Structures are given as C-alpha cells and as structure tokens.
Amino acid sequence: GLPKGLLVEESRANLLTYSEEIDNAAWSKTRATVSVNVGVSPDGTTSADKFVEDTTASNTHAITGPTVSYTSGTIYSLSIYAKAGERSVLRLSLPTSAFGAAVAYNFDLSAGTTTLYTAGTDNSSTITYVGNGWYRCVVTAQATASISAKPNLYIIVGGVATYSGDGTSGLYLWGAQLEAGEI
Known about the structure:
The protein has 1 helix and 14 strands, in the order E-E-E-E-E-E-E-H-E-E-E-E-E-E-E. The chain has 183 residues and is mainly beta. Strand 8 and strand 9 (113-118) form a beta hairpin. The longest helix has 4 residues, at 96-99. It is globular.
C-alpha cells in the first residue's frame, strides 16, 4: 500500500454529440423510440432515457449514433451506462466499414456479463457494475480504415436482434461515449 506517485491521465474528447440526449435527432431510431428523462441515472439525476422497442414483428430495434470520423490504426472505445427494464440485453456494435468486420458484444444487464457476438481483430469488452442496477458497458477495438461511420445499439431478446416488439418494453441508457483510446 505505498504511494507510487501522481496518476496523470491524458485528456480525451467524447466523439459522440448529444451523448446524454439520446432522444436527439442526431441519434437515429429504427423501429424504436426514446422516452426522455424517465429514470434516475448513475449520477443521481433524473436524466436516464428509455430505449423502447416498437411493435414491428420479426425485425431489429435499434438506435444509431451520430457519425464519427475514425482513423485507421487508432484504438476506439464505445461506452454507455445501461440498466435493465423489461428487456435486459443490449448489443453495442462498432461499424463494419471502420473496423473491417462488425465488432459487437451483447451485455446482459441482469447477469452482469458480456459475450462476443461478432468481431474483427484486436478488440475486447467490459461490463462494470456501478450501483442501482446500472452497468457501464464498453467495447474497444482498433480501426482498420479511415472513414466516417456510426455506432449502433440494439435490444436483444432470446439471444437475437430480430424479434417481435411489444411497443412498451425496453431498457435504460445514459452517458454514451466514444473516444480514441482504451478505457
């Protein structure tokens, strides 16, 4: 337990606009809606949004983030705080065009586990419990192309992204972040 000195971490920028306003038009909703400020977020304020599936049968229910410029060879980390609602599995996916293959992990917000869905090379995921049912979900990978593209979030039911929604079920999100570097 001896002090080893001062920890100095570099400053990083969040590349996602409206990262705590997932209802904003910068975030595209596909067969889904976002209910605004309906839950207590990890910082204790009532600013968590609910990602709600629509009633479309046999299809995906997704939110696509704002466009981000990726640089080949740079490591990126996509993170978001998530909490189970009526649905408990969230998939975070970095774009195929920037990473050579889809880099996607499923995060089980009931069990506190993460599993690989599909991935290119040099990637990883973590899930960290932060209290009150909230988890910080992180996907990290190295870009293989310099291109502008968008990250995606999906609700997963029964292990798949394609299912019939009921129009009311969903999960809670707060504090999306995409940054160059590892978290």
